[in-house]
């Protein structure tokens, strides 16, 4: 078969791309695959959400339990993202600007939460703080509640979004080098001034990229928060957990209405992500453009 | 202490940032993760083996690994086509299509789960015609594989894209001018160059699928021995306060994904120097 094809093409001077029929065929296969696995599920979310009209849609999205789930989602992301942002900047500064032994091991450890599945990520906090956990009796004695309460949700969210900012920022800061900061220091700038005026402007897009990905995962996380939530309506349900409860109660329209809000967030994330990628690729292509 | 530990630098803040990094890493990641191993060690070797080899647990491994493998294989084939088309061809709407590939990363898994279940349920848009053809998807192992295919879709595409972009067209030109057909050029010149990245993408999709929970629980039907994935079994055991049993399964799954990621790391260094190996 391969030999036959080779003979057929022997006369062509340059086979630098596939025959037009193959190109069209491959493009159609690729688009059909993406249509089936990405676009159709996306369309289903909105079709199901609107199956009973706009009024039902708005009602489902604004009922008190949905609003309290929205508030809890914003709260957990509002705790997790800033903490991981501070950590990401600190880790990137230490790793990118200094040389020390064990650096690669540290980078591997920072990536560790990505290798841990969502359910296990939630479970480790049950093992620590649950009723039968290592610190459970102590917490009960002091009337403190971590799992099945907001602190547990926040901890699980912090864990699963832990590497995002750091892993985006480390390569960007490493690529930027240390010369500009050293020059600023020699010229008399303080440590903070050097960071704010020299380092931050050069890594701001990488930083934003990491924060956006971190936020999307924080707001959308399901498995880990499901384990630590305890599913108390109006108290410990984030938006993804609220979707699950509505769905399991066969309230499909409301489940998809709430799910559509999360879908908007995902689409917004994709738009922001490709905008940042487009901007940084343009900057890479035109080095003459002032970088400040 | 700083001066002997790190190379001297005029930049400030090493002690503060390095100290905070280690502290935060220990409190958030290392300390909680270590409980997993302490808890499962409490079982002893016999108890551990009994917990991880019970028939229901073994059935869940088979389903989880099998469906993950199926999803990763489907993505391996179609991911290559998608990556090739996105890099080498031009068509209208390319940029939004390219951006959409990341949807499974950005969409909350619970949303993906209920959307796929509704689509493939016996009365769903896709489930109905499939059911008429005699194929049941939702609430079967096939449904689990569908969800895991969705979840792993970006990995192969995103790992291959930069590698295909960086291919040296001169080499393809040389092959063509020496009389190679396009198929020969692809098999003998392009494929060897992209093979490490291809396998890496496949392995990443597989590793991701192993631990997946949200997108699977809705479509799986969750029948013990039949359509129950390992992640769900862990949750079931936790809810029955069988912490040790849950951790034992978790350790098995965690070790499996660590081994995979270690292999992926090796692969990635191989893909940087594909000829030296």
Question: How would you describe this structure to a colleague?
Answer:
- The complex is a heterodimer of chains A (292) and B (277).
- Chain A has 292 residues and is mainly alpha-helical.
- Chain A contains 14 helices and no strands.
- In chain A, helix 8 runs antiparallel to helix 12 and helix 9 packs antiparallel against helix 11.
- The N terminus and C terminus of chain A are likely disordered.
- Chain B is mainly α and 277 residues long.
- Chain B contains 14 helices and no strands.
- In chain B, helix 9 packs across helix 11.
- Chain B is globular and about 70 Å long.
- At the A-B interface, helix 1, helix 2, helix 4, helix 5 and helix 6 of A face helix 2, helix 4, helix 5, helix 6 and helix 7 of B.
Question: What's the alpha carbon Rg of chain B, rounded to whole Å?
Answer: 23 Å
The most extensive interface, with participating residues per chain, is: A-B, 105 and 98 residues
Q: What count of helical segments of chain B does DSSP give?
A: 14
Helix content of chain B: over 70%
Shape of chain B: globular
Proportion in helices of chain A: over 70%
Q: What is the string of SSEs of chain B from the N terminus onward?
A: HHHHHHHHHHHHHH
Radius of gyration of chain A: 25 Å
What's the number of extended β-strand segments of chain B? 0
- Give the overall pLDDT of chain B as a whole number: 91
* C-alpha end-to-end distance of chain A: 58 Å
Secondary-structure-based class of chain A equals mainly alpha
The low-confidence parts of chain A are 1-13, 287-292
Q: Which secondary-structure class do the elements of chain B indicate?
A: mainly alpha
Parts with pLDDT < 50 across at least 5 consecutive residues of chain B: none
Main beta-sheet annotation of chain B: none
Give the helix tally of chain A: 14
Average pLDDT taken over every residue of chain A: 89
Query: What shape does the CA trace of chain A take?
Result: globular
* Percentage of residues in strands of chain A: under 5%
């Amino acid at each position: 078969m391969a030999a036959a094809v080779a003979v057929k093409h022997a006369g062509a001077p340059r086979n630098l791309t596939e025959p037009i029929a193959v190109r069209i065929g491959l493009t159609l296969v690729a688009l059909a695959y993406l249509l089936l696995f990405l676009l159709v599920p996306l369309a289903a979310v909105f079709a199901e959400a609107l199956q009973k009209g706009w009024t039902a849609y708005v009602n489902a999205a604004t009922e008190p339990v949905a609003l309290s789930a929205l508030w809890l989602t914003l709260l957990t992301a509002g705790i997790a993202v800033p903490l991981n942002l501070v950590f990401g900047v600190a880790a990137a500064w230490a790793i990118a600007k200094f040389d020390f032994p064990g650096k690669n091991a540290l980078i591997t450890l920072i990536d560790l939460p990505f290798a841990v599945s969502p359910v296990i990520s939630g479970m480790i906090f049950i093992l620590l703080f649950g009723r039968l956990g290592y610190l459970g009796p102590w917490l009960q004695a002091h009337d403190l509640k971590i799992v099945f309460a907001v602190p547990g949700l926040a901890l699980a969210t912090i864990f699963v979004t832990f590497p995002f900012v750091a892993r985006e920022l480390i390569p960007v800061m490493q690529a930027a080098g240390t010369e500009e900061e050293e020059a600023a220091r020699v010229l008399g700038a303080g440590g903070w001034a050097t960071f704010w005026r020299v380092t931050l402007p050069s890594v701001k897009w990488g930083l934003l990229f990491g924060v956006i990905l971190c936020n999307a995962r924080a707001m959308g996380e399901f498995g880990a928060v499901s384990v630590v939530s305890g599913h108390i309506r109006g108290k410990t349900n984030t938006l993804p957990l609220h979707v699950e409860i509505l769905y399991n109660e066969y309230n499909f329209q409301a489940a998809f209405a709430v799910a559509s809000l999360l879908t908007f967030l995902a689409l917004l994330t994709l738009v922001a992500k490709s905008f940042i990628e487009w901007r940084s690729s343009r900057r890479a292509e035109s080095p003459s453009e002032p970088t400040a | 202490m700083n001066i002997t530990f790190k190379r001297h630098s005029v930049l400030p803040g090493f002690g503060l940032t390095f100290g905070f990094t280690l502290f935060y890493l220990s409190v958030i990641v290392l300390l909680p993760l270590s409980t997993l191993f302490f808890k499962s060690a409490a079982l002893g070797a016999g108890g551990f083996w009994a917990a991880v080899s019970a028939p229901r647990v073994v059935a869940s491994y088979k389903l989880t690994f099998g469906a993950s493998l199926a999803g990763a294989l489907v993505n391996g084939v179609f991911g290559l086509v998608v990556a090739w088309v996105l890099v080498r061809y031009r068509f209208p709407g390319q940029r939004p299509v390219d951006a959409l590939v990341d949807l499974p990363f950005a969409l909350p898994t619970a949303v993906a789960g209920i959307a796929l279940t509704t689509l493939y349920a016996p009365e769903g848009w896709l489930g109905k015609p499939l059911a008429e053809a005699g194929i049941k998807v939702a609430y079967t192992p096939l449904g689990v594989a569908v969800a895991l295919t969705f979840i792993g879709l970006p990995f192969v595409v995103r790992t291959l894209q930069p590698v295909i972009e960086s291919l040296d067209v001169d080499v393809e030109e040389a092959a063509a001018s020496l009389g190679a057909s396009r198929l020969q050029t692809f098999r003998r010149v392009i494929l060897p160059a992209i093979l490490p990245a291809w396998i890496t993408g496949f392995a990443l999709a597989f590793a991701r699928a192993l631990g997946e929970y949200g997108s699977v629980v809705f479509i799986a039907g969750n029948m013990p021995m039949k359509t129950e994935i390992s992640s769900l079994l862990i949750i079931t055991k936790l809810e029955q306060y069988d912490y040790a049993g849950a951790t034992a399964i978790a350790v098995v799954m965690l070790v499996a994904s660590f081994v995979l990621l270690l292999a992926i790391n090796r692969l990635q260094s191989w893909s940087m120097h594909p000829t030296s190996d």
